[in-house]
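Board notes (copied after class):
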Amino acid sequence: MNNEFSRGFVFDLNGTMVNDMEFHTKAWYDVLNHVLKAGLSWEEVKVHMYGKNEELLVRIFGADRFSEEEKQALSLEKEKRYRAAFLPHLKLINGLEEFLKKADDQHIKMAVGTAAINSNIDFVLDNLHIRQYFDAVVGADNVTTSKPHPETFLKAADLIKINPKDCIVFEDVPKGVETALNAGMQAVVITTMHAQEEFSAYPNVLAFINDYTDPYLNKLLHPDFTAMPVSHSV
């Protein structure tokens, strides 16, 4: 891709490119409650749906509960359940492939920046045949510290050679938008899992969209686009 103007798009994966967060949450709910007997409600599990798998286990059980080998085994079990359940439903969120094509035609650099493990990234990009749109892919296996630390998005910006302030992040969860804020980036929120009011603390939100057919996205493709965050006062 040849860049005609200096803007980059960084896409989270789960809940942002594919609407799979219910499947991830269900997989963790089953492992945490049926395997580990944590006794957590659905809402309690949902709160922890960000960052690396190992970090989730530490948040819930503490740093000393599991060995690294045990955390890896539990993570693999969770992902096995997720992929088996989601595969029959695997598809891009409505309008995304067309938006990727338009951005590619405008020579906008694009990256994936996600807390997903690399095998789950491959599961989506390769099964849906969209890897060619992305100049860089940054997953859990490529960073030291996961979201909301900005490393994921900053590394993506560095790899596509775009200044962080000129990158627009596409996210679906408050912690992801917080990550963008920490990286000095603005964000477009797709409301697959969280309502608009849950993002009221973040001044870097440009827009809320239900899917990628939203007319607002056409503005992002224009070379003269000026980012104006939405007001949370309404």
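Comment from the instructor: The CA atoms of residues 38 and 61 lie 9 Å apart. The first helix runs from residue 21 to 35.
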